[in-house]
Amino acid sequence: MKKISFKLGLLFFVFVLGIETILFASLYVTLVNLRIHEEFQQLLARGNNHRDVLEKSFDPATLEHVATMESEAETDVVITDDTGKILCYSDHILPIAERIIENTNKNIPHRGMIAQKNWQKESHISTVSPIRIGGEIKGYVYMFQNTESIQNMIDKLKHHFMAVGFLSVLLTIITIALLSRIITIPLIRMKQATEKLSKGDFSVRLQVKGEDELAELGKAIQTLAGDLEYLKKERNEFLASISHELRTPLTFVKGYADIARRPNLAEEERNRYLSIIYEEAEQMQKLVKDLFELAKLDQHSFQIHKEPTNLCSFLKKLHDKMHPAFEAKKMSFAYHCEKNITVHIDQKRFEQVMMNLLDNAIKFSGEGSAVSIEARREKHGIVLIVSDEGRGIPEMDLPHIFERFYRVDKSRSRTNGGTGLGLSIVKEIVEAHGGSVRAASEYGKGTKIIITLPEG
Ligand SMILES: Nc1ncnc2c1ncn2[C@@H]1O[C@H](COP(=O)(O)OP(=O)(O)O)[C@@H](O)[C@H]1O
Ligand SMILES: [Mg+2]
């Protein structure tokens, strides 16, 4: 069986059973020893009693009296003189009694001693107490007890122990079976959930209770499922957008190519169609370039190589490079920058960011308007603001412009060659620098793109 609940349960069971066995065994041994000890003590005390009586009056009448008393009891007595000769006895002389009397060494303390202790093998146990009168040993009182009663008692004890042991093993099995099931149920659920996940079914719902490690694992799986579901949805949407973006220019290319290849077309007209095809191809090239850029940014391998950069000289270089583009549209372009601001940026990537923003500023502003970049140090970091006086962004579009393929004016953006990917590339790069970007705009008046970078 491969089931984890079974393995866990078996492991627990082996350990608990081991512990139980040790405990039961030691309890049993202790109890048995205690009981046997008591039996010996009682027998010895009884012998000592007789001995005390006999020490007071050591005569045949008393001997007879003691023997009679014992003949009524379960125990037996044998009284000998100091040489071991039997003076009197209750009931009868047991064969074992003679052997014991013969073998007992005669140096016996006055409090008596055990003469035969092997209760397991012999028919009787025995004690002996010396009778001492005036410092002289007069004889010995031997007490005998049948071991059958002891054996019976031990057997009963054994039965009790077996019953209790059996019951506790049963209870242990039940408890462990229940517990291991309770512990493993969430694990099994999680296993099923991850199996579903690996098959691409992200609709897993785990009921997570509590705060322990298992609950945390459950929550992690749940989050993972959510993330995967989101990614899948996003990927599908992304693919749909890409195919949509490509379909329009391809339709144009195909349509115009079809017209352009007609034989009886004027040269001038053919050239017009060919240049439309060229423009569309350029647009697609741009789209593919941007997509490639995004794909690179998306990869985990994407790394930025930050280096300490003086922001002002960085902006100056940018200004020199971009100036002609502004002049071509009769726009002004200025930058203001607090001195000695050093930022840690990947210069190539950050140039990409600024170019995208300036490209937008040029694209979405009228002739003769002004664009400026401002860089300053603020409490929470370095702030870079690109402002223009262009058409601005409607309030309802403002939260979406950093999304992929989002354009405020879908139809017109075709004519100015936008792919809708510029700002999402900007966002990825800025965030990879540990910064953030947002837009503020007043429709019809102008737009500000605000980048915040961590200082140093
Ligand atoms: N400076 C700006 N002024 C007005 N609208 C802007 C500006 N920058 C961005 N936008 C709007 O945000 C959209 C997304 O910008 P972007 O991601 O750069 O895509 P693209 O430039 O390819 O259209 C643009 O289509 C435009 O509608
Ligand atoms: Mg753009």
TrEMBL record:
Keywords: ATP-binding, Cell membrane, Kinase, Membrane, Nucleotide-binding, Phosphoprotein, Transferase, Transmembrane, Transmembrane helix, Two-component regulatory system
Tree of life domain: Bacteria
Membrane topology per record: Multi-pass membrane protein
Reactions catalysed according to its record: ATP + protein L-histidine = ADP + protein N-phospho-L-histidine
Organism: Caldibacillus debilis GB1
Record bears the keyword Transmembrane helix: yes
Enzyme Commission code: 2.7.13.3
Enzyme class: transferase
Principal cellular location given in the protein's record: membrane
Leader sequence residues: none
Protein name: histidine kinase
InterPro entries found in the cross-reference section: HAMP_dom, HATPase_C_sf, HATPase_dom, His_kinase_dom, HisK_dim/P_dom, HisK_dim/P_sf, HssS/ArlS-like, Sig_transdc_His_kin-like_C
Subcellular location as annotated: Cell membrane
GO CC, any one term: plasma membrane
Transmembrane portions of the chain: 161-183
Positions of the HAMP domain: 181-233
Record's keyword annotation contains Nucleotidyltransferase: no
GO MF annotations, alphabetized: ATP binding; phosphorelay sensor kinase activity
Ranges of residues in domain Histidine kinase: 241-456
